[in-house]
Amino acid sequence: MIAAGIIALIILIIVLLVLTRTIKILKEYQRVVVFRLGRSIGSKGPGLLLINPVIDRLNLVDLREQYFEIPHQTAITKDNAPISIDFIMFYQVIDPVQSVVAVQNFSGAALNVAATTLRSVVGDMSLDDVLSRREDMNSLLRLRLDEVTERWGVKVSNVEVREINPPPAVQDAMTRQMSAERTRRAVVTESEGQKQAAVTVAEGQKQAAVLAAEGQKQATILAAEAERESAKLRAQGLSDALEAVNTNAARSDANVLTLQYLETLRQLAQSPSTKFVIPAELTGLVATMGQATRAAMEVVQPSTNGKSNLDKTPSIN
């Protein structure tokens, strides 16, 4: 009985071992490349997998995106400047069979390919381009590495340069250049500030001058308007006065006018001046006075003649 129990226990252990080697459970991101009698029969997974532990051999492959750090590599630029660069390569297995069959050690192969590719890319660029065009260098590295790893069933998704260390002499020159650039920017900024201040002051003065000119213009216009209104009023007053004089003159008797002319002539006669301005109406006045004188003489002469005749008539006694 004891021997039978031991034999049953041994058989159970063997069955469990066979089952553990026969049944495999793979996760979603895992694949296995199955080699049966040394020949690849493809990739299996995910989920439950049954294999023959005697004739089958498995290689587990991870399909998740992974990264690989490339340590500092010394490269020489196009203008013969040695620099040290390190970067990170992100990759993903897209063909599990090729990733196992086509390359023995992907990590070692990727390290060597990345180092040679980096030297090739940097050798075609100047130091200034390496320092300023990092995105372009990342793209070139990704394309070059992807061309090589594609035949291994691996896709290089991204390459990121982490650090670029130029030689000390170049670093000193860059420091001086940076200081000079900052000084230049400070001077330019100060000049721009002064320029803006001067422009602002000039604009203010211009606006003030325009406002003053506008004010002077308005004042001149108002003064002209006032002068014009005053002239209108004076002209209107003079017109009214002349109209009143004409009205009064029309209402006055001609004899009154004659007396006024005579009074004026009397005043002229009393004046010590030797030159007189005689109005044109004086001739009419003289003619009028002549007519009046003749009429008076005609009235006086008949009365005189009648009286003399009476004197000559003899008296009858």
UniProtKB/TrEMBL annotation:
InterPro entries: Band-7_stomatin-like (IPR043202), Band_7 (IPR001107), Band_7/SPFH_dom_sf (IPR036013), Stomatin_HflK_fam (IPR001972). Pfam families: Band_7 (PF01145). Gene3D superfamilies: Band 7 domain. The chain crosses the membrane at residues 6-26. It comes from the Bacteria. SUPFAM superfamilies: Band 7/SPFH domain. Signal peptide: none annotated. Residues 21-178 form the Band domain. Keywords: Membrane, Transmembrane, Transmembrane helix. Belongs to the band 7/mec-2 family. PANTHER family: AT06885P-RELATED, BAND 7 PROTEIN-RELATED. This is SPFH domain-containing protein. The lineage of its organism: Bacteria, Bacillati, Actinomycetota, Acidimicrobiia, Acidimicrobiales.
